[in-house]
Amino acid sequence: MDKRLRWFDEGAPKLRQVLERLGLGAELPDEEFYACPCCLVAYPRAAVTAGLLTIEDVPPKSLGGRPLLLTCKRCNNTAGSDFDSHAAIRASSDAFMRRQVTGRALPATAYVDGIPLRGAAQWTESGVQLFGVPEKNDPKVQAAHFEALDAYAERGDRDPDFSFTVHTRFDESRARVSWIRAAYLASFAALGWSYILREVMDPFRNQLQQPGVSILKTYLLRTPDVAAEERRIMLVERPAELRCVAVILGEHTIFLPSLFEPLPYEKLVEALAMLRKSDDQLSIRLDGKAVPWPTRAMYFMD
Length: 302
Ligand SMILES: [Zn+2]
Fold this sequence. Notes:
- By secondary structure, the protein is an alpha+beta fold.
- It is built from eight helices and 13 strands.
- The strands form four sheets. A five-stranded antiparallel β-sheet has the order 9-12-11-10-13.
- Helix 3 crosses helix 5.
- It is elongated, with a radius of gyration of 24 Å.
- The chain binds zinc ion.
């Protein structure tokens, strides 16, 4: 069977069960339905074959993610341009600053004696490699750039007036929301409907619907030395003032409301502000129970 239909069939009865527990049983239609976890719009099974419910990678594929669950086509597509593209550029930019050999080049301009050559730059085992892109350069300027470079070589001058600038453009807050969104989806896949269908989770969904407004501020901290492939979900018990669900996606730790007696959004932000360093790095050790990383939506709490 189509994986999407299987995932629909696993999620729909769980959702019904949770809504019935919330006392909404009388209002539910007979037909099976699954709600997009991002916008909570409910879809019938036919929406799968119509392509309205789509497989979502968590984190996004461009950030090393894998297929995990169903979201609606609209949320899936808009996240790509609204948030994920920013996170991908930010990640490439970070990798470049750390001199990582990724095989991916970034747009760059090289200067010799102030004469520009537009192209791309990437790190290789032997150092930074810069190359021009002919259609981005005025042929005369390009020729002058290489002439200046040759002149240094001919003179045997080992200290040329050389510099380069890498051009990356991304919105930091949108890049952060991309990671927060991935954490929200991973925690949904692990814990289920009863975890996300609580009022305390509303700010997350509101942020996803309003990409231009800054609703979630300090929900994410970084630990730069953690491997990019690291994936963990932890029910944080200590420090007690930070009880929450922490989702670790590589160097990013995202803090989501806890399962029981969740701290309101403002309290969680306050606790985080006390416990982080002056920059966005995590400065404390988190202790608690680990939740197995989901390979598909598991609905452990439902
Ligand atoms: Zn949606």
